[in-house]
Write a structure and sequence with these properties.
Blueprint (H helix, E strand, L loop, with lengths): L10 H21 L4 H9 L18 H14 L1 H19 L5 H13 L4 E4 L17 E4 L3 E11 L7 E9 L10 E7 L5 E4 L13 E11 L3 E3 L11 H4 L7 H23 L13 H29 L9 H23 L9 H9 L9 H13 L2
Parallel strand pairs: 1-4, 2-4
Antiparallel strand pairs: 2-3, 3-7, 4-5, 5-8, 6-7
Helix pairs in contact: 1-2, 1-3, 3-4, 3-7, 4-7, 7-8, 7-9, 7-10, 8-9, 9-10, 9-11
């Protein structure tokens, strides 16, 4: 059995990984290249495989330690953290609900012994948009005598050509299938198969190194066991039971943006301690106004971290009363981390919006928290309907 030792999750070890990744973040933000050095640092620290289940020889990291890891990675470079979050979620889902073909999962574990092997569930499409809002994908898996032929185009495929495996959301095209209610699922695809090509569409405000490009599948041949069905809920939305079985779904995404806010807080403090206006004659950190702003930034981050970790602790303790509130909790975390970074930028003015300063990058990156499902408008409408009894 493949063995993955438990990573060092001490504050000192995570801080060292954060610092190494951060040393390359500005370079990758400028070039938009796949953040190979940052991903390699996360891999060497054992973080990409930290959620591999114990039955597969992994550490089996739980949700709270997972978000600690992702916060540390996000503080270094959120593009690295997003690729890591998707990979760690895939391993966590496999641990609680095995669904990969055995040969494929053995392969991704073997690859992970010698280097990074990122994985991503690739679901969005140019026409469909975010699948969390419902609808069927245009991507199809056509049944053949030997297995499947996968065809279609996907958007926002984070990780790009750096991925080792794709989990592709597709409709099953089967001779005896129900045309009105076809089966939908993830097709598990090794990234190097013939018929896969990339379209470099990602030219984004934030997370520029995440390589969230479009990908095209042209008659990609796959075995029968590569298709994993996803059930449809009463609301018409298909929800992956493997991902849901981890208990907290995509809570790793808010965690990495808490890291961005922490990086912004440090950048603000560094400027405040060293900026000495000639009219003032002392560092602005010694003024009551800047001290108050620093306190407000800290308030927002403490609020976000408390919501994040407090929610996980309640779920782990078996408290199911807040499960219906997870979406608005995510929205509240998003508001807090954005407010923290915007407060820092507003207090420093032009300096914070200058490209050579990291605060400008942190501002662009933290705004991306809004795009992860469920988006705030969906969460608020659902919460309002619960409250009003609709």
């Amino acid at each position: 059995m493949t063995r993955f030792p438990a990573p060092d999750l001490s504050a000192e070890a995570l801080a060292a990984v954060t610092a190494e990744i951060a040393s390359h973040a500005a370079e990758y933000d400028r070039t938009g290249e796949f953040p190979a050095k940052g991903i390699d640092a996360a891999h060497r620290a054992g973080l990409l495989t930290a959620t591999v289940g114990t039955e597969y020889g992994g550490p089996g990291l739980g949700p709270r330690d997972t978000v600690r890891v992702l916060t540390a990675l996000g503080e270094g470079d959120p593009s690295v953290a997003l690729i890591a979050a998707n990979t760690m979620q895939a391993h966590a889902a496999q641990a609680v609900r095995p669904h990969w073909p055995a040969s494929y999962y053995d392969d991704v574990l073997r690859r992970s012994l010698t280097g990074p092997a990122p994985v991503n569930a690739i679901r969005a499409e140019p026409e469909l948009g975010a699948p969390a809002r419902g609808g069927l994908p245009a991507t199809t898996a056509t049944r053949t005598s030997a297995g499947w032929l996968l065809s279609g185009r996907k958007a926002y495929a984070t990780g790009g050509a750096g991925l080792a495996y794709h989990l592709v959301w597709a409709v099953a095209d089967e001779p005896d299938g129900d045309r009105d209610a076809p089966r939908v699922g993830h097709v598990i695809v090794p990234a190097e198969l013939p018929g896969i090509s990339w379209v470099e569409t990602w030219d984004h405000l934030g997370l520029r190194a995440s390589n969230t490009h479009d990908v095209v599948y042209d008659q990609v041949e796959l075995p029968a066991e590569a298709f994993v069905e996803i059930p449809r809920g009463d609301d018409g939305v298909y929800r992956d039971p493997a991902a849901m079985a981890t208990g907290l779904g995509s809570f790793g995404h808010p965690a990495l943006y808490v890291g961005v806010a922490r990086a912004a807080r440090q950048a603000f403090a560094d400027i405040a301690r060293t900026r000495v206006p000639s009219a003032l004659g002392k560092p602005i950190a010694q003024t009551e106004r800047i001290q108050s702003v620093a306190g407000e930034i800290d308030l927002y981050i403490v609020q976000a971290e408390t919501l994040l970790h407090g929610t996980i602790l309640r779920v782990e303790a078996g408290d199911t009363t807040l499960l219906s509130e997870l979406s608005v909790i995510k929205a509240a975390i998003a508001r807090s981390v954005i407010a923290a970074v915007q407060t820092a930028v507003a207090a420093l003015g032009n300096l914070a919006l200058t490209r050579h300063h990291p605060l400008e990058r942190h501002l662009r990156d933290v705004l991306c928290v809004r795009v992860h499902p469920p988006q705030e408008d969906t969460a608020l409408v659902a919460a309002g309907r619960r409250l009003l009894g609709e």
